[in-house]
Specification:
This protein is 49% helix and 18% strand. The chain is of the alpha/beta class. The chain has a single domain, classed as P-loop containing nucleotide triphosphate hydrolases (Rossmann fold), CATH 3.40.50. It has an eight-stranded mixed β-sheet, sandwiched between helices. Strand 3 and strand 4 form a beta hairpin. It starts with a helix and ends with a helix. It binds adenosine-5'-triphosphate. Adenosine-5'-triphosphate (ATP) binds next to helix 2, strand 7 and helix 10.
Length: 291
């Protein structure tokens, strides 16, 4: 049974890879603790990347606690749960946010937990060709490190761990990094709600030092960027608007822009370096390992 599923997925990989000319970059955004700004960052980052001219998808994979519809102030009729139940196709549930940004809505109730992770992947991925035109797909995972989150993180091209500089959040971020390090060496960090770049670098250096000493020298933890603590962020969230739209002159918008630029640079470099392993076909290949 497992072999058959793997074979089906492999067939899907080769047919999708053959048809595809463009590579989609999958970026998983995760955190140790909840409430550190993962969804706020994912949504503003997706928006800014799309404004840079990229075709962007954002997948609300925060199973059971999906809230990106609130971030983008859109009404959702059907979501990933309907796809899992066979009541909708992936294309039925896509919500256009801007001309080149689409939301793939998640489920905020707990019914989705009845469906196995395997079913989620099979049904979703079997229709994922529709997402071929995307340059980037941001996957907003839940907090913590449950099995489905691990699968997303393992399969993604890049993983971003978001944390804030309070000790409890740092401890949880470190625990998440330790788990991720059991299956991948490259981890990006975003320090959210800091007072300054200096504070972000100081916390990052501390995490890196402990991680290298205890997890291993092979681990490559990079500071992707920081976002200042700013009331404009929380007030935008309350108004169901993106701070990058509401406050384009703010430091926090500049912070997101510089994170988007760093991602853009990675996109250009890695597409040149290893085209066969990036994008949708690469994601499929990595997912196949789990079946
Ligand atoms: N840089 C910031 N400055 C001020 N407030 C912020 C900042 N980033 C996030 N917040 C606030 O923190 C709260 C939590 O943010 P968000 O919902 O994005 O976190 P999360 O990690 O996605 O949470 P969950 O795990 O529950 O999905 C929100 O009210 C948001 O406005």
């Amino acid at each position: 049974m497992i072999g058959h599923q793997a074979q089906k997925l492999e067939e899907l990989v080769s047919s999708t890879a053959a048809k595809k000319s463009k590579k989609t970059r999958f970026i998983a955004v995760t955190s140790g603790k909840g409430g550190v700004g993962k969804s706020t960052i994912s949504s503003n980052l997706a928006y800014v990347l799309s404004q840079n001219g990229l075709n962007v998808g954002i997948f609300d994979a925060d199973i059971g606690l999906a809230n990106l519809d609130v971030m983008f102030n859109v009404k959702i009729k059907k979501n990933i749960l309907h796809v899992l139940k066979g009541e909708a196709s992936v294309s039925d549930i896509l919500i256009p946010i801007t001309r080149n940004l689409i939301l793939i809505p998640g489920e905020s109730g707990d019914e989705i937990l009845k469906y196995s992770d395997k079913a989620l992947f099979e049904r979703f991925m079997s229709e994922a060709e529709i997402l071929d035109k995307l340059d980037v797909m941001i996957i907003d995972t839940g907090a913590g490190i449950g099995d489905h989150i691990k699968m997303f993180i393992d399969a993604a091209d890049d993983v971003i761990v978001v944390t804030v500089p309070d000790p409890a959040a740092i401890t949880d971020a470190y625990a998440t990094i330790k788990t991720i390090a059991t299956f991948r060496d490259d981890i990006n960090l975003i320090m959210n709600q800091v007072k300054s770049e200096k504070e972000a670098i100081a916390v990052y250096e501390k995490i890196k030092k402990v991680a290298l000493a205890n997890i291993g020298e092979k681990l490559n933890i990079k500071l992707l960027g920081k976002i200042n603590s700013d009331i404009k962020v929380s007030s935008s969230v309350k108004q169901r608007a993106l701070f990058s739209v509401m406050h384009p002159g703010s430091i926090v918008h500049k912070d997101i822009l510089s994170i988007a630029n760093a991602i853009n640079k990675n996109l250009e470099r890695d597409v040149l370096v290893m085209p066969s392993e990036s994008g949708l076909s690469g994601l499929f290949k990595r997912l196949v390992k789990h079946f």
